[in-house]
Each structure stands twice: as C-alpha cells, then as structure tokens.
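Input (CDP-paratose 2-epimerase):
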Amino acid sequence: MNVTVLGASGFVGSAVTAALARRPIRLRAVARRPAALPPGAVAEIETVTADLTEPDAVEAAVAGADAVVHLVLHESGWRGADDDPDSGRTNVGVLHDVVRARRDGSRPVVVFAGSTSQVGPPPRVPIDGTEPDRPATAYDRQKLAAEELLRAATADGLVRGVTLRLPTIFGGSAQDRGVVAAMMRKALAGEPLTVWADGAVQRDLLYVDDTAEAFVAALDHADMLAGRSYPLGTGVGVSLRELFGAIAGVVAGHTGRPAVPVLSVPPPPGTAATDAHSMVVDASAFRSATGWRPLVPLAEALRRTVKVLA
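Output:
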C-alpha cells in the first residue's frame, strides 16, 4: 500500500507519520520543511519537501498513492484565518487539488483533518456529529468548505473521503502551539497561568498519539466510513480552570518547585464566539465503526508532555 501524508512535519502530521511508519507500507512524507524519519521504521519511507500551494505540487505529491492523509494547515492557524487572505488557498485549495489530481481511474482514500469547532457554538454538550453546522470563524468556514468538497468528490466516485473532526489536541512537541503546551511552557518558566473569567468552559482533550491512531483506524476502515465526517474526542469535558490547575501540579512534580498560581483575567477583545462555549465530543459513531478509542488518560498524557517540553 502506498500512503502519502501531507503536512508530515507538523504537530499531528509527525505523530501520524510515526504511527504509519510502524507498518510494512510505502510511505511518502510531504511537508514544507523536511520531515524527520521516525526511529525504528518498518515502512519504506520517501520524504518530499514541497510547497503544496504551488501549481502542480499536489499532483506530484499524491501520484501513485492508494491513500492520502491530509493534515496541511495554513501557518496563520485557526485564529489568524480571518485576517489572512491566503489561508483559504491552503485550507481549501490543497484539498481541491488532491481530489482533482489526474489518476488512472483508481479511487484513493483521502482522510482529511477537520475541526469540531465547525459546528459553531454547540447546540448541546456533548456533540455527536449529528448537529447542523453553523461555523462562526473564517477557519471553520474554510474547513467546512473543504469537507463538503471531499464529500462531493466521494459521491462523484473520484475518491473515498473521510473527515475526522479534531477537538483540542495536545502532546509534547515543538510544533504544538495549543493551549496545553502554552500553559505548560509558562509553568515551566515559573509564570502564573491565566484563565479567562471563571474558567468554567470545558474542553475535550485528546492526546496526539491517540489522534494518530484514529487516522490509522480511518485508513483501515475507509470503505465503511467514506462519505461522512466523524468528530473525535474522549467524551470527557475538563474545565479550563481544572486543566490549568492540573498543568501547574504536573509541572511542580517534575521540577520540584511550588505550583504556579492560576489567576482569573477578563477575556481579551476579539475572542471567537466558540471561546465562551464548552466543547465535549461523543465519538461513539467512529468508535463503533472502527474499534478505536483513546488509550492515554489525561494525567498520564500531561506527565508525558511535560517531560518533553521541559
């Protein structure tokens, strides 16, 4: 089997590449900067450095692939998409090029990384993927547009497309720019952690290695999953105040210093509509179809993360 990972040097991309490298496949790791080869790889690995927004770059990258894992994200991130006119080319245009690449009539599997925030402020907690989408940010609108493009290409017989909508992902990596890593770095520096308002908003936190295994499971069950999107999560909501307190405690245990305080501050101007709403995910649809489930408890995942970031 020939599998191409687009965005292979990124945070989630590195973990997915490492998980796939443990399989006896041909693996092409494509990224803007050179992707590191995972240690102990079984797969036959080819690394490709490319700017996938350039003309014909995607077609060359996915040539001969039986499956494509699409993890490309514009460098402005989800908060910067509203102010960056180039974000749509990366967040939507690359997937357009993937599904329209010239082929010999094969229908490759395409597993795309969406976001649970595409639903907008959630109508209920937990969400389970049956909610109507009301995206509230440019990033979420772009992710939804790409997902709809993939669904249409699947219906047209061009690909077998699956979208995995990701919650808050975290893990020890230099590429992790999320809230867990940011607060852990502050605690390691001895700085207090700040939570907006009372910190009661909940998030569903998924460890990056469990996320990678979900993408592998999607590849294994692509025919059953094709044409749909599936939200991922643990099903457990953790308030931000509780999370930051746990981070302070884990860092204190690692460094031997007293735990830094967690302070309440007013939300800054320009916060997204989804920032004030809890997001917890019932992933039973994906779990029932694939057998996947998160294996790393939050406390253990935080301990692993601080060891790397420290």
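The CA atoms of residues 187 and 248 lie 6 Å apart.
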